[in-house]
Each structure stands twice: as C-alpha cells, then as structure tokens.
Amino acid sequence: MKQLIFICLLAVCGCTSVAQNHQTFKGVPINGTIADFAQKLETKGFTSAGNDDDGSVAMQGTFAGYNNCNVSLLQIPGTDRIYGVKVVITIEMPLSFTDEYQKMKSMLEEKYGEPTSMTNTSAIDEPAAQTDAQITDKDATVWAEIFEGLMQSLKIKTDEILKYEAPSGNIDLVGYNIAVSGVMVLTYTDKENLKSYRKSIIDDL
C-alpha cells in the first residue's frame, strides 16, 4: 500500500514538473493544441473572437485588470500547436497611457526582474515636403501645415521594446502612443515550443 502511494506521489510530481517546464499565460501552460488552450482560457472568462488577419485564433477577456483585451493564440506553422500568446491592451482617457505603461513595466520587473534587452525606436515619418502649389497659395500652405501637424500627432510611436526572461519563456512589452491614448502589446512565448516554431520556419528556407 505504501509503495502504491509512493508511486502515485511520483506521478503527481512528474505531472507538476512537466507543467512547470512551460511558460504560462493566465496560469495556463503555453503548450498543447490551440483548441485545448482556447478551451482552458474560456474557463477563465475569455470568449472566442474569430480569427485575426494572419489567421491566428482570437479571443477577448480581462487581463491584468484591463477589460476587453484582445488575445491572439500564436500557432506553430503546419501544426495545430501553440507556441505563444499576444495580448493587446488599449488605454483610453481618462486613463493616462504613460502612467499605465510605467505601471505595467513596474509589475513585470517585480515578477521577472529587469528586462534583459531594450530597444528604442520611432515609427514617425519625416514631415512631407510641400508642393510648389502649396507654397504659392498662402491659405493652402497654412491648412497643409495644420493637417500635417495633426497627422504627425496621430501617428503611432514605438517608444521602446522590452524583453523579460522567465525560466520557461520570454515576455515582450511594446508601447504604442497614439495621440492621447495608447496601446500596450505583451507577447508571451514558450521556449520549447518557440524552438519548434523556429525550426518550422528554418525548414522552409
């Protein structure tokens, strides 16, 4: 009897060890099939939202205290298996994008430590040169400058890309500032399944 209990304990420990070998999202290991993972997220209140433009399975739900977050389940090409999860959080007034972004960075650092890499980039284009017609027409030039300023203020800026390392995966954080609102994008990838994803891509080369 004692031997049977010991074997059962070993089996439980083994299952726990396997689960802990994968990065998690909302407590669910990023492993297995897309359908199984989606089903587990549904038990946590997420709902199906069809498919993204790239074919990824899309869901919606509450994440890190933010409602109506858009979630994409990232699939290993040619299989039905998952390797990552992308979650998009939209920040709108009266919330401050800067404050919410800094809060997210602080929480990630509290859990995973300082980011292992950081990239500062900018996606703002240089102002377009005015045409001769605009230069010769004073009113048109004024309106062109106003319109150009408005468009520049609405263009998306990528302020920084942060990468946090976890024992079983990576978490990338990207902040997009859009005028008075903004978007935070977090991408969770499982190390083991990411290897399978990369191999499937390399095999095509």
Rounded radius of gyration (Å) = 23 Å
**Assigned CATH class:** Alpha Beta
Supply the helix-strand structural class.
alpha+beta
- At the fold tier of CATH, the topology name is Protein Transport Mog1p, Chain A
Total beta strand runs: 10
* Main sheet characteristics: 8 strands, antiparallel
Across the major sheet, the strand order is 3-4-5-6-10-9-8-7
By DSSP (H or I, 4+ residues per run), the number of helices equals: 6
Low-confidence stretches: 4-19, 123-135
Keywords:
6 helices; 39% helix; alpha+beta; two-stranded antiparallel sheet; Protein Transport Mog1p, Chain A; eight-stranded antiparallel β-sheet
Written description of the protein model:
With 205 residues, the protein is α+β, with helices and mostly antiparallel strands. It has a single domain, classed as Protein Transport Mog1p, Chain A (3-Layer(aba) Sandwich). The protein has six helices and ten strands. It has helices at 2-20, 34-42, 97-112, 132-136, 138-154, 191-204; strands spanning 24-25, 28-29, 47-51, 57-63, 66-75, 82-91, 117-119, 157-166, 169-178, 181-190. The strands form two sheets. An eight-stranded antiparallel β-sheet has the order 3-4-5-6-10-9-8-7. It has a two-stranded antiparallel sheet with strand order 1-2.
